[in-house]
Design a protein that fits this description.
alpha+beta; two-stranded antiparallel ribbon
Length: about 110
Amino acid sequence: MKKFISLLMIVLLQLTILSACGTTKTPTETSVVTTPISLTIEELAKYDGTNGNKAYIAIEGKIYDVTDITQWKGEKHNGYTAGKDLTNEIKTKAPHGMTPIEKLTPIGTIKN
């Protein structure tokens, strides 16, 4: 019972802090704000989803994290590997086109 009350107090404290900040989101709804990244194509290649690396893809100069997307498990999706610019493949070969990409939030951009 003491643990439950302690947990309840923590949640209430978090809600109080959030309401003082002018937000109505609960702690589970609050997203983590991260600084956008900027990678070259060569640097992007490191994020191929292998050896514990995240899986990133680039589309139209924007970088997307596909690490936790079911279709990208195993760092590949329909024969395409993460760590690359897949703009041409998405636009000309993917049956779904840009539709699933439009649902993602870019995490950064490709730098020249």
